[in-house]
Specification:
The chain is built from 13 helices and nine strands. α10 links the parallel β7 and β8.
Length: 419
């Protein structure tokens, strides 16, 4: 007997699926409305600070299936409208902020891979999903993937540190110098406005402590945390935006100061900086919860010799190298330098011509897929500066952590040593 024919009070009774017309209509609307919109020219919009996820390669093995979710989510037409609608309903009717999960999505820096995979065996386990945005106090917003990258990393911190040591060995064996500048997550640099409790707090703190202890002592990374906190707490200079995951120009300058001193101690003694124009731009965290906003930042004028401003224009971080040449003066580094970075390098680009007389910068995100431009930049340099945001290391997904990429860099630089 079919289960729908049983008496309604029978524990095995189930209605016929054909009677669930409401669910069927909702399902059809969910799939057909975006499809119809696409036919009429509506295209997916980028609402996060990264490119839309590309269709996964069949050569990725199991990664093809795990990558489909992120691709489908990013490339859904009208997704931005849906996010704004959910935010309006949640705040207007229920009086609370919407909860958007970030499980399985990509980083704002275009490097962090799918984080919905099981945590590495040596990492603290963490079940459930993480919010895209963590609501802090005093109007502060924090990026949820700062936490997720630690709790659901694809490899343990010890492996990441070993990879960085291998990378340093590969660079230094060719006669070059490697400067590793780790941009702290905002949740690390300025945690005072974080809520008392949030998903993943315990495991993120444990992994963060282990990471910073080892990345500075073993991998030789510059520790920028103290200076960034001091700028904000004592000097009243914002080192990060309230509603953006990135640091400000002041934060970027602090990083460059540390980098320059590491390359050539004492080089910054003649530097003089002065306030420049105020710059207003869209911030990247409110759109993740269906809102919008802008941030205002102070740009600076940097005179390496103490008198002549040598700052340039803001540059894009892409796979296309940008080279800046200038006449060296006191306070500048004349050795050829290549700088590989992520979106945190963006605010630093206008100050590079004031610090380096021969510098090339580009993004490291393509090292695993199209390394040619970065390879040439490294060959032409005597110093390689690698700027990388903390979450792209704690997650274990930065492309230069791959053994094959490290091996390629070792072979490349060994064939073009610096004497």
């Amino acid at each position: 007997m079919h289960e729908s024919w049983l008496p309604r009070e029978h524990p095995l009774h189930r209605p016929r699926h054909g009677q669930q017309r409401g669910a069927l209509v909702a399902a059809l609307a969910f799939f057909l409305v975006p499809t119809i919109a696409f036919v009429f020219g509506v295209r997916p919009q980028q609402i996060e600070n990264r490119p839309l996820a590309g269709f996964p390669s069949i050569a990725s093995g199991w990664g093809f299936f795990t990558g489909l979710s992120g691709w489908a989510t990013d490339n859904l037409p009208l997704r931005d409208s849906a996010v704004h609608a959910e935010s309006g309903v949640s705040q207007g009717i229920f009086g609370e902020e919407p909860s958007f999960s970030s499980e399985g999505q990509s980083s704002a820096d275009g490097v962090l891979g799918p984080l919905g995979s099981p945590p590495a065996a040596s990492q603290p386990s963490q079940s459930g999903s993480f919010p895209n945005v963590i609501q802090g106090s005093n109007g502060w917003l924090y990026y949820g993937e700062d936490i997720e990258a630690k709790c659901l990393a694809i490899q343990p911190v010890s492996t990441t540190i070993a990879d960085l040591e291998q990378l340093r060995s590969a660079v230094e064996a060719s006669g070059r110098k490697l400067v590793l500048a780790v941009a702290p997550d905002k949740t690390t640099a300025l945690p005072q406005n974080m809520p008392a409790n949030y998903p993943g707090k315990q495991c993120a703190q444990q992994v963060g402590q282990q990471f910073w202890s080892q990345v500075t002592s073993q991998a030789g990374a510059l520790d920028l945390r103290t200076e960034l906190r001091t700028m904000y707490q004592m000097d009243n200079v914002p080192s990060y935006y309230k509603q953006d995951t990135h640091w400000t120009d002041a934060g970027a300058l602090a990083m460059l100061h540390a980098v320059a001193e590491d390359i050539q101690p004492g080089v910054s003694e003649t530097w003089r900086s002065s306030p420049g124009a105020l710059v207003t731009h869209a911030v990247d965290l409110p759109p993740l919860v269906g809102q919008s906003g802008t941030g205002t930042d102070r740009a600076y004028l940097l005179s390496p010799d103490g008198s002549t401003d040598r700052t340039g224009a803001y540059g894009d971080i892409s796979n296309q190298p940008v080279t800046e040449h200038g006449t060296p003066t006191s306070g500048m580094i004349s050795a050829p330098v290549s700088v590989l970075g992520d979106s945190f390098l963006g605010p630093a680009t206008r100050y590079l011509p004031a610090i380096f007389s021969n510098v090339t910068y580009l993004g490291y995100g393509w090292l695993g897929t199209d390394p040619g431009p970065a390879d040439q930049a490294m060959i032409d340099s005597h110093v390689i500066v690698l700027e990388v945001v903390e979450r792209n290391l704690t997650s274990g997904t930065a492309p230069f952590l791959q053994p094959s990429v490290i091996g390629d860099i070792r072979s490349l630089l060994a064939a073009h040593p610096v004497h």
